[in-house]
Amino acid sequence: MRIPSATYRLQLREDFGFDALSRIIPYLARLGISELYLSPICKAAPGSAHGYDVLDHDQINPEFGGEEAFQRLVQLAKAHELGIIVDFVPNHMGVASEGNRFWEDVLEHGQCSERANYFDIDWQPTKETLAHKLLLPILPDQYGICLENGFFQLRLESGTLRLSAGKRTLPLRPKSLGQVLARVADLLEENVAPKVSDELRVIAREFDGLQEGAPDDASALAEYRRAARALQRRFAEFIAFSDLGLPLSRALEQLSGRTSAPDSFDFLDQVLRAQNYRLSAWQLALEAINYRRFFDVSELASIRVEDPVVFDAVHRKLLALSEARAITGIRLDHIDGLFDPIGYLRTLDTELHERLGESDTSALALYTIVEKILEPRETLPASFRAHGTTGYEFARVASGVFVDRRAETSLTSTYRRFAGDNSNFQDHVQQAKRDVLSSLLVSEAMSLSRSLERLAEHDRRWRDLTFHSLHHALVEVMAAFPVYRSYVRPDGTRSDEDAAAIDRAVASAIRRNPTAGRGAYQFLRTLLLGDSTLPGAREFAMRFQQTTGPVTAKAVEDTAFYRYTRNIAQNEVGSAPERVGVELGEFHAQNSFEQSEHKLSLTATSTHDTKRGEDARARLSMLSELPNTWRRVVFELSRSAAKHRSVLDDGQVPTQVPACTDEYLYYQSLVGALPFGAALASFDKLGERMRGYMLKAAREAKTNTSWLNPEPEYENALARFVENTLADAEFRAALCRFC
């Protein structure tokens, strides 16, 4: 097994593929790099800037040059004695564009699809209109409005009937094609030969008569799929043979409705209601989505790699590349999103041992690291079959050691005086988790709570617990969870660390809610520890674990970091902003621990998730060495900027723009971004960047505006504030003097 000594992460894109990368390999080799660390190489959504929206795990991304270009890269890397670590995405796939054959098959055949179990779909959700359907929240407006605006069109593509929905085309349920073709035959009756329209009606009746079978009847489902695909081929051949393409397309256009006549959309509405999916406005995903996704991103659907069939389908190419020695390491994305990370890593390592012919099962077969955010003093589970992590924990101490801990009192005093924020960071985190669970991830929270209620109904000790009390307990325990997730196994096996995290969360939640009954919390604790024998209890516990990670990430990294702005040098993934700085002793202790426990983790000072680069963080760390000067300067900047603030008055509570926490973040961001020895010309380039950044920061904070519900008045006033302050000579002079 090859162990890397120095990695260099490369972000592949359409304009920087394998051949472009090959041209810089000699340079990287001269730098002393041992391993090329590549962003995902599997086929992703067209034009993807990151590669995590994988469409096909079995195919090397053609936008990067495909298989041949990748093999050329491999050979050149070997010639320069460089290895290749690939970033692999086992948790989810992109579903926002055509090209995902698994997802397309599910949309077409629903529960009858061979791939129905590939994705984490709840086919029996509480919402009755979604029974046996997949919610597809892709519309820019309400369904009925989109329908009557002509957003949908029935189309003929390569001999197949499909639905056009804006820029996307979707497959149609085979059985629903019967009613479409019957109407088409009626419209074409006078314009085509009788035998053509008769044959079209025969095909329509056969589509209409397809027997889909029950989801648990494997032989009936296989027969249905065989019949449906044979009929699809017959229809395509008939269209080509009879030269019916153009008149059929015109008929489909007529059936798609006219914007001037709302009643003309009734037939298309009937067809859409007959599909295996329900089209809806994107906002409905917040409350009714019935497939698991990556965080709150509906365009990334989670897959069930815990199923051996799915594991084999998804990992075929990765294992082949390993066996061919084309890659020397694997970086696993979002390991906490998996149903059973411990089981997954064991399965992967077993497969790698078999492919690589490694007989020593006590050692890992291939260099493997996981993207895992560890809280301070948290360790990677001992049962993880991985060499280490991608390095968030090192970035925490490497950045924190440059921040002077003696400045904590002064920096806190300045922040509270300026922003009026007397809450500590953990208070912000817990409130942010509650906010996330009631907005971005409310669908996931409600689904878990309904499962919790069903479990309680089947236990006479807990059946009197109400949905309200159970939901409240679930939210509060998630809000108090001290780590990203626990790792209780499907068989109930748990570590002492798992039990301690669960007990700590439940105790903290009870302490913060002294008026709430204890029953719901006790019942939840029993389930999470794997102590319940109720049918479905283990499944619930596993789903809970899968959810705490996204809740924590969205609440901490994408919310609290932008609400609590005391010292943004430490508002970084894996850091601990509740403390100012890292003691030198802790820095050395962390490094010693890594050498003994996770000695093959990356020692990274930046990752793809870093909020700021090392240079900005280094400059911001200097504020801790000048705390009194910083206090004077920040209030000087604030006085200069006073005339550029706005007040929004909706007749109730006036809102100052920017909010004080946003303004404090703004001044620190300027210090971090303005070049040393800044001249007035520097501000010309800075304005656009700062407007974009402050818009992002305000939306992430979700206090006065958000990505979900943007507030144009606040955002416009914030943009004016940035623009006007950077054009203000007095403000710029004060900032330049300090920098």
In short:
With 739 residues, the protein is α/β, with parallel strands linked by helices. The protein is built from 28 helices and 18 strands. The strands form six sheets. A six-stranded parallel sheet has the order 1-2-5-14-15-16, with helices on one face. A three-stranded antiparallel sheet has the order 6-13-12, with no helix packed on it.
Mean pLDDT: 95
- In what range is the share of β-strand residues? 5-15%
Label the overall shape.
Answer: globular
Terminal Cα span: 49 Å
Rounded to the nearest angstrom, the radius of gyration is 29 Å
Enumerate the spans where pLDDT stays under 50 for 5 or more consecutive residues: none
State the secondary-structure class: alpha/beta
Essential attributes:
single chain, 739 residues, alpha/beta, three-stranded antiparallel beta sheet, 28 helices
Can you offer a commentary on this structure?
This protein has 739 residues and is α/β, with parallel strands linked by helices. A 6-stranded parallel β-sheet has the order 1-2-5-14-15-16, covered by helices on one side. The protein is built from 28 helices and 18 strands. The model has no long low-confidence stretch (mean pLDDT 95). The longest helix has 27 residues, at 537-563.
Secondary structure elements and pairings:
Elements (H helix, E strand, L loop, with lengths): L6 E4 L7 H5 L2 H7 L3 E4 L3 E3 L9 E7 L5 H14 L3 E6 L3 E3 L6 H9 L24 E6 L3 H6 L3 E6 L2 E6 L2 E4 L5 H12 L5 H15 L9 H25 L2 H11 L10 H8 L3 E5 L3 H4 L4 E2 L2 E6 L5 H16 L5 E4 L8 H16 L10 E4 L17 E2 L2 H9 L7 H12 L5 H13 L4 H16 L9 H14 L15 H17 L6 H10 L8 H27 L20 H13 L17 H8 L5 H15 L4 E3 L6 E3 L2 H14 L8 H20 L10 H15 L2 H10 L1
Parallel strand pairs: 1-2, 2-5, 5-14, 7-11, 14-15, 15-16
Antiparallel strand pairs: 3-4, 6-13, 8-9, 9-10, 12-13, 17-18
Helix pairs in contact: 6-7, 6-9, 7-8, 12-13, 14-22, 15-24, 16-18, 16-21, 17-18, 17-21, 18-19, 19-20, 21-26, 23-25, 24-28, 25-26, 26-27
